């Protein structure tokens, strides 16, 4: 029987990225040849342990960190939970305070962890953002008080791509005696991040966002910073994170990080150019006579320097974003309504509402995120498909 499966144009890189073949090959090699338990004492274990240490060195290099600063986790959500809960509980136990500051457009991994900490007696301040998704640094400065132990501001937003001023935020935190954590899941290896230059105390990342395997991630913890463990048990990860290490996943993530790091500058330029090309094409759809009554706006900042290279989030006013996504999928195009981790929710995007969109306009929005595999021909096909969809729904 002839294979009738349609070719997919993948424009949802913010949800997950295709794995680099080199990462998959490295995982297979580890699974086949170095499957020993890294905590054991025989030679096979030594090889597995060295694979993990090699991965630690590789990841550290991409951030200008030391290998001892990198702790492997199951992904960005665990890293975020560990950073917030571990830092908060360690600070509270030592009597430093119980106040945490974050932004109102953080990923659910941060917001729901903050709500959990509120139930545990911590006080949380949620900073508002402006219409482009930026925090106000003067508001941040005012929000930090004598009880503030931690500030968590994402490096870049997963839905609208806004790149936050985290270097300046970290400087304010340190001036006022608070720790600074950033959820860099969307930003890491898409834009440069130097933890020493930026003054970052804690940083979360996830392997599948940059060509690595799902179920892998890490938490950067600044040297001499003690935070409580989140997972208890054995002495793995230098007694900070219990559980037998996912050697193959860690090695695959590191191989992906190495490749993404070496290609970051080239990819940033290529993807940014494609983003600008698609932005212009989408906005021009409303100039087509049959669609002149339809308004299309870009959600988030139009500043290409302060927006992630591949992120585009549009509001197709008066149209159903869900209907657009279904029809795109029928045409072989994968896009999304926002955070993949919120896709099961019936509520409109909290990010879009926080930047001032009505629920109706939030429901009319669609996110396209481009990656290194995106081509101009795919964008042209997507634009033509969007034109037909808009005509069909109008």
What do you see in this structure?
- Helix 4 (about 110-120) links the parallel strand 3 (about 100-105) and strand 4 (about 125).
- The chain is globular and about 70 Å long.
- The strands form 3 sheets. Strands 2-8-7-6-5-3-4 form a 7-stranded mixed sheet, with helices on both faces. A 3-stranded antiparallel sheet has the order 9-10-12. Strands 1-11 form a two-stranded parallel sheet.
- It contains 13 helices and 12 strands.
- About 40% of the residues lie in helices and about 15% in strands.
- With about 400 residues, the protein is α/β, with parallel strands linked by helices.
Give me the strand/helix succession.
Answer: EHHEHEHEHEHEHEEHHEEHEHHEH
Q: Main beta sheet: strand number and arrangement?
A: 7 strands, mixed
Q: Kindly state the percentage of residues in helix.
A: 40-55%
Overall morphology: globular
Alpha-beta content class: alpha/beta
């Amino acid at each position: 029987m002839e294979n009738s499966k349609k070719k997919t144009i993948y424009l949802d890189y913010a949800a997950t990225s295709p794995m680099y073949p080199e990462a998959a090959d490295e995982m297979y090699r580890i699974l086949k040849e170095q499957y020993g338990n890294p905590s054991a004492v025989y030679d096979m274990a030594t090889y597995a342990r060295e694979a993990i240490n090699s991965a630690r060195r590789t990841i550290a290099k991409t951030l200008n960190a030391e290998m001892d600063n990198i702790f492997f986790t199951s992904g960005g959500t665990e890293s975020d939970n560990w950073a917030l809960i571990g830092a908060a509980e360690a600070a509270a136990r030592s009597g430093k305070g119980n106040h945490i500051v974050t932004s109102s457009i953080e990923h659910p991994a941060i917001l729901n962890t903050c709500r959990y900490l509120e139930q545990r007696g911590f006080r949380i301040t949620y900073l508002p953002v402006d219409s482009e998704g930026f925090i106000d640094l003067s508001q941040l400065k005012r929000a930090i008080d004598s009880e503030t132990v931690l500030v968590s501001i994402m490096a870049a937003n997963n839905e609208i791509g806004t790149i936050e001023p985290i270097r300046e935020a970290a400087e304010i935190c340190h001036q006022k005696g608070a720790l600074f954590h950033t959820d860099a899941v969307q930003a890491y290896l898409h834009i440069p991040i130097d933890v020493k230059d930026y003054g970052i105390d804690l940083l979360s990342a996830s392997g599948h966002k940059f060509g690595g395997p799902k179920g892998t991630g890490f938490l950067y913890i600044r040297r001499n910073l003690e935070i409580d463990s989140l997972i208890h048990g054995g002495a793995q990860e230098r007694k900070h994170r219990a559980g037998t290490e996912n050697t193959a996943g860690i090695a695959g993530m590191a191989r992906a990080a190495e490749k993404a790091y070496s290609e970051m500058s080239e990819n940033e330029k290529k993807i940014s150019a494609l983003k600008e090309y698609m932005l212009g094409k989408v906005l021009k759809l409303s100039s087509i006579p049959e669609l002149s009554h339809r308004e299309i706006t870009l959600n988030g900042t139009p500043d290409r320097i302060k927006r992630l290279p591949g992120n585009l989030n549009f509001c197709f006013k008066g149209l159903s974003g869900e209907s657009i996504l279904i029809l795109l999928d029928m045409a072989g195009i994968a896009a999304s309504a926002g955070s993949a981790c919120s896709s099961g929710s019936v509520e409109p995007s909290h990010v879009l509402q926080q930047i001032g969109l009505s629920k109706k306009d939030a429901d009319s929005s669609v996110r396209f995120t481009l990656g290194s595999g995106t081509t101009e021909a795919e964008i042209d096909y997507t634009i033509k498909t969007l034109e037909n969809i808009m005509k069909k729904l109008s």
